[in-house]
């Protein structure tokens, strides 16, 4: 005998469980990708601001610190010199990146 009235209740539950299983596995992956993209964007903005900071001042006349606000995030740009090397750095939230 063939059921021609549509899906049975059991088939509906089975397809719903597969759909939920796919959603449960894909949503965390998508959200982690979005977080990594957001972190990468913040870092890229920091490097761009650092480039502008370094380009703006001659090597001998860097101000000690400069603070810039971009897209609601405060970036602190600074220049540090050790006995071995010089480097320009930026700090935002709890991250710090430096370029020699």
From TrEMBL:
Keywords: Membrane, Transmembrane, Transmembrane helix
Bilayer-crossing regions: 12-34
Protein known as: Type II secretion system protein
């Amino acid at each position: 005998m063939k059921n021609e009235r549509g899906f049975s209740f059991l088939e509906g539950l089975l397809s719903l469980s597969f759909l939920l299983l796919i959603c449960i596995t894909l949503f965390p992956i998508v959200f982690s990708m979005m977080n990594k993209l957001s972190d990468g964007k913040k870092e890229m903005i920091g490097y761009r601001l650092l480039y502008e900071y370094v380009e703006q001042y001659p090597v001998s006349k860097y101000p000690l610190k400069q603070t810039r606000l971009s897209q609601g995030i405060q970036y602190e740009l600074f220049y540090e010199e050790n006995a071995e090397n010089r480097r320009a750095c930026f700090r935002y939230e709890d991250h710090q990146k430096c370029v020699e």
